[in-house]
Amino acid sequence: MGAITLDRIMAVQAAYIRCIDSDALEAWPDFFVEDCLYKVTTAENERNGFEAGIIYADSRNMLSDRVLALRKANVYEKQSYRHILGLPSILKNGGDEAESETPFLVLRIMHDGQTDIFASGVYVDTYRAHGTDIKFARRLVVCDSSRFDTLMALPL
Hints:
The protein is α+β, with helices and mostly antiparallel strands and 156 residues long. The chain has one domain: Nuclear Transport Factor 2, Chain: A (Roll), CATH 3.10.450. The protein is 22% helix and 44% strand. The protein contains 3 helices and 7 strands, in the order H-E-H-E-H-E-E-E-E-E. It has helices at residues 6-21, 43-47, 60-73, and strands at 32-42, 55-57, 79-85, 89-94, 97-110, 115-130, 133-143. A hairpin with a 2-residue loop joins strand 4 (89-94) and strand 5.
């Protein structure tokens, strides 16, 4: 199984980002345990203890449904992301779970080449040992801004 180390956290973070940035979204849910929580919210909402998120999924099946909807049902202007991450800070580590906080910046590239800063904030993550891998038990995406573009199609 192995300990949940900073190196392993950085490796799963890098693979996660590569999955999204290379449009391999069908593999995105595989980064999570079955009974996971994935939520995109704002720093203000988090400070105030508001549970609702801009995106909220409490199982890997919900994440898979989101990808299916992106591919088949929803119509969005063609876009891609480029994530830039800071180094994770380990907040807790013990046994088969660990928690970290990682700053992020996401650039959005539109089909015409226009590139904008799309989101910045921090990932607050709980990892769980899962066989020889570690997976996200919880990924809370806390965005600095309270303003969101209606084109938030892809996961952060």
